[in-house]
Amino acid sequence: MLQRAALRVRSKPASPPTARIRRGHRCEFAIVVATAGLWVAAAACGSPAPARPPAPSGASRFAHVPAATRAALEKASPVGAGHAMVVTDQHLATLAGVDILKQGGNAIDAAVAVGYALAVTQPCCGNIGGGGFMTIHLADGRNLFLNFREKAPLKATPGMFLDAKGDVVTGRSTDTYLGVGVPGTVMGLDTALKKYGTMSLRRVMKPAIELARDGFVLAEGDAEILNGRLRELNQYPESARIFGHGGKPWKAGDRLVQAHLAETLEKVARGGTDAFYKGSIAKAIVKASDAHGGILSRKDFASYNVEWKRPVRCEYRGYTILSAPPPSSGGTTMCLALNILEPYPLGDWGYGSVKFVHYFAEAERRAFATRNTYLGDPDFVHIPMRRLLSASYAAELRSTIQPDKATPSSEIKSFLPATEGNNTTHYSVIDRHGNAVAVTYTINFLFGIKQIAGDTGFFLNDEMDDFTAKPGASNGAGLVQGKADEVQPGKRPLSSMTPTVVLKDGKPFLVSGSPGSATIISTTMQSILNVVDFGMNMQQAVDAPHVHMQWYPDVLYVGPGLLTPRSKRQLQAMGYTLEERSLGVLESILVDPKSGMLEGASDPHRSAGLAAGY
Questions:
Q1: Which among 366, 307, 376 is positioned nearest to 337, based on CA atoms?
Q2: CA 384, CA 301: separation in Å to the nearest integer?
Q3: Whole-number pLDDT of residue 34
Q4: Which 3 state secondary structure label does DSSP give 380?
């Protein structure tokens, strides 16, 4: 469908571009669709967003960061649109969502179309073999949250990832069928569509089925992801047949065809949830699990369920934050950190200033200590949510922050009475009616367990690694968690996914979220701070280097280009151990409260991504 639409456009008279194509992935996308005319790619991006007002002080809001970072951020400009916007980290999935919106679908229709399209175009991370969360704001004022997180198999046990000595067995939860949780994505997307969508499942899945059956041309970013795990994918016959490429590196311009996945998607389009959980797909997964030492059963699939819940809600500087409740830790941890930070004049201190970085890190240190101790699946553990999100609890934590010294993480213990995937996908959608949807879903690490069950065509998750294999031992994300997140049959593992909708006066203001495992919370929170406190436009807020602190390890992670040499020395003198590394990425939308114009921003670190609207 996408290719045919492009051909129809090509027959029109040539016209000038209607929007700037941002560096990197915009240019790559233009090359991919050059046969349809370069101007088509430009038109898909929307119009340039209006300039946002300067910072109140009149000084550069980037005065504290290195000159090269400041110059790049001052030039960053989002894509604009007047009606609707879709932002994902894979351009063809974005266009599938925009196409649904142009056909009259709402944001939920588009979100489901994007979810299935990403399962084809981003096999590492977009998925039907995993699970996730969806935060929804409806134009009528209702705020909703859908939990379609994976579940532990019914045969799971707390010690299943330990050896006879009680030590964690490396790789068992990430590289074997024991690491596979019962997938939730298909039921989640189908449930959302039936409840709040306006189109049929077959109609919204059509772009994904065509992309799988006919194949799609890889952009450079697509090829990079495949090549990053090419050796591992070639270790397994089912994976190697589709993605192994004969051991040769993929390159931009290659076509990836996924015939088996197309057949699986056809089954789902015809039969919905039952086709996945009660038919041949579940049977194939269980058969492969049995053959490779796993514990999945047909009963696991037949008994799987999704849950409608209330989003976590908090207020920050006059904005309402709606985000993910447990079993995600994202919304709770972010709101707790925001509650700690709210009294501080972050905007006066400035983005990238030592003072901002210090107080942000200390707020996160305390919020993550709470997260890692008390949060888990609320169906299995008691979580004192009212206390965790109270002003008094934030004040207690805030009072322990020293203005000129880092607090060692060993000194951060529980402040409450005792009770306790780096490679995810996020996308954001707003439609012309004012419905807003934020979706984050995952198969955990890149390509999950790297294995495909029979001829199903999709990778299975290694989400069981998100459980606490042993209290006090770190998981694959480096998180040290407590007994609240231990493995139990039918339990959902704790997550960091943070699909977030921010409201201003009851209307959508910001839709955001991130992949990045433990860094998801930090990155999503900074997309809000960068706009609200530092006055950035959406692209600046997405591009700006981030900072992350997760309690343990006791390290302050900083994005490249954030700190000047002097700032690094000052923070080290305060007691911080610094480590520079790339952190989470963002796919975000901002709504100008006055004009209603939409600003879409896709993170340049996911070079195949695209923000597009109309």
A1: 366
A2: 31
A3: 26
A4: coil
Q: How many CB atoms lie within 10 A of CB 382?
A: 11
**Exposed / middle / buried, residue 227 (Cβ in 10 Å: 0-12, 13-18, 19+):** middle
CB 455 within 8 A of CB 263: yes
CA quadruple 121, 124, 125, 127: dihedral, nearest 10: 70
- Residues with a known catalytic role: 424
d(CA 520, CA 510): 16
- Residue entry with tokens 């707390």: 158
Comparing C-alpha atoms, which of 120, 111, 297 is closest to residue 192? 111
Residue 92 and residue 117 in contact, taking contact as beta carbons nearer than 8 Å = yes
Query: How far does the chain reach from its first CA to its final CA, in angstroms?
Result: 19
Q: Which tokens is 83 given?
A: 């009606």
Kindly report the pTM of this predicted structure. Answer: 0.89
Owner of token pair 């954030």: 562
**One-letter amino acid identity for 288?**
A
Q: Count CA atoms within 13 Å of residue 128 on its CB side.
A: 36
SS (H, E, C) 13-65: CCCCCCCCCCCCHHHHHHHHCHHHCHHHHHHHCCEECCCCCCCCCCCCCCCCC
Burial of 489 (0-12, 13-18, 19+ CB in 10 A): middle
Q: Do residues 45 and 610 touch, judged by C-beta distance below 8 A?
A: yes
Residue ranges of the chain whose pLDDT lies below 50: 1-45, 47, 49-58, 415-422
Which pLDDT score is estimated for 42?
31
Q: Give the residues across from 512 on adjacent strands.
A: 500
Instruction: Give dist(CA 357, CA 350) in Å, integer.
Output: 10
Which spans in 45-154 are helix H? 67-75, 91-102, 107-121
Q: Is residue 327 reached through a cis peptide bond, with omega within 30 degrees of 0 on the bond before it?
A: yes
Q: What does the pLDDT read at residue 424?
A: 84
Q: How many CA atoms lie within 13 A of 565 on its CB side?
A: 0
Does residue 577 sit in helix, strand or coil? coil
- In single-letter form, the type of residue at position 612 comes to A
